[in-house]
Amino acid sequence: MNDIQMVDLKGQYQKIKDKVDARIAEVINSAAFINGPEVKSFQEELEQYLDVKHVIPCANGTDALQIAMMALDLKPGDEVITTTFTFVATAEVIALLGLVPVLVDVDPDTYTINAESLKAAITDKTKAIVPVHLFGQCSNMDEVMEIANEKCLFVIEDNAQAIGADYTFKDGTVKKAGTIGLVGCTSFFPSKNLGCYGDGGAIFTNNDKLAERIRMVVNHGMKVRYYHDEIGVNSRLDSIQAAVLGVKLPELDQYNAARRAAADFYDAAFAGTNKIETPARAPYSTHVFHQYTLKLNGVDRAGLQQYLSDHGIPAMIYYPVPLHLQKAYKDDRYNDGDFPVSEDLSKRVLSLPMHTELTKEQLTFITEKVLEFINK
Ligand SMILES: *Cc1c(COP(=O)(O)O)cnc(C)c1O
């Protein structure tokens, strides 16, 4: 049995090596490193895959969020609501732009934004909501869009973890994650569901005007070269990364299916114990399992993590500290106990190895070891 890894990028690469190597070599031979044809073709292929009018590639997922907020003309003091149980990037860019991050709690089953908390957090200063499609499943976008439309708020989807997931609205309409709100953001960090071999990101929108603004912001605020209409940033997807993504995008559905199959295996193995809650599958979203995250009931989490590690099985805690309790984001507005669901999750969650290359043998070994520890 091969070593078990949290994410097996090497194993995945071996299967597409010839194509990837050839396309990277092509980029190097052409010397079109920046804004080469690979970037344009990947952009168009992703627009088609997502069924969205505009994809604007950029340097990483954090930039994608920042650029979206810059292009929406959010001003210092404007409030932007997001969840406290997420990766820090979401709140980081809000704070960096001088906006006010307003944190809210998540749903105990899906770990995504809780509608009641969201409603309660809206003030006259609220301008935008950033739902995070955490661990590979969409937030409840029927609820989010209804609240946003009623209060005239922008919706910026943080889709770094759920690319390829399908959202089904109450009326039966189906859309890809990240194309539901006014603007969607994603990351191509290597371990994401669609990852490149370095940093990368993209912004999606169906709004022509906003797309034009975003294209200016990513490119130093210029439309005509060396004429700068506004203060922008430099954020590009480079051609080598676009070449890698061009090979991997056609595989994305298959990759997500492989993740789902691994999740099904885990679910079945843990169905018989009440010490483990397996990830909830929301009726409105497919789950693309960026992470497979268990909620433990009365299990010594650190002990389990150590036991697994002793048997060569990595397991990670996403996320050990909710943002309102992080040193950098501590704030008079928040106290310990303000977001009970997120605080409880941060103490009980554990993510098991999840990637496209897990074998039945590995999954059997992992689940056996987990059950061995919790039944001790
Ligand atoms: C990975 C991630 C980001 C940031 O993406 P980078 O490409 O690493 O900048 C933002 N939000 C969430 C939820 C993420 O998981």
Walkthrough of the structure:
With 376 residues, the chain is α/β, with parallel strands linked by helices. The chain has 2 domains: 9-250, Type I PLP-dependent aspartate aminotransferase-like (Major domain) (Aspartate Aminotransferase, domain 2, 3-Layer(aba) Sandwich), CATH 3.40.640.10; 252-374, Aspartate Aminotransferase, domain 1. Helix content is 39%, strand content 14%. The chain is built from 12 helices and 12 strands. It has helices at 9-30, 37-50, 61-71, 89-96, 115-121, 141-151, 208-217, 239-248, 252-270, 301-310, 340-348, 360-374; strands at residues 54-58, 79-83, 100-104, 126-130, 154-158, 166-168, 174-176, 183-187, 201-205, 276-277, 292-296, 349-352. The protein has a 7-stranded mixed β-sheet with strand order 1-9-8-5-4-2-3, sandwiched between helices. Strands 10-11-12 form a 3-stranded antiparallel β-sheet. Strands 6-7 form a two-stranded antiparallel ribbon. The longest helix is centred in the N-terminal third of the chain and has 22 residues, at 9-30. The structure holds pyridoxal-5'-phosphate.
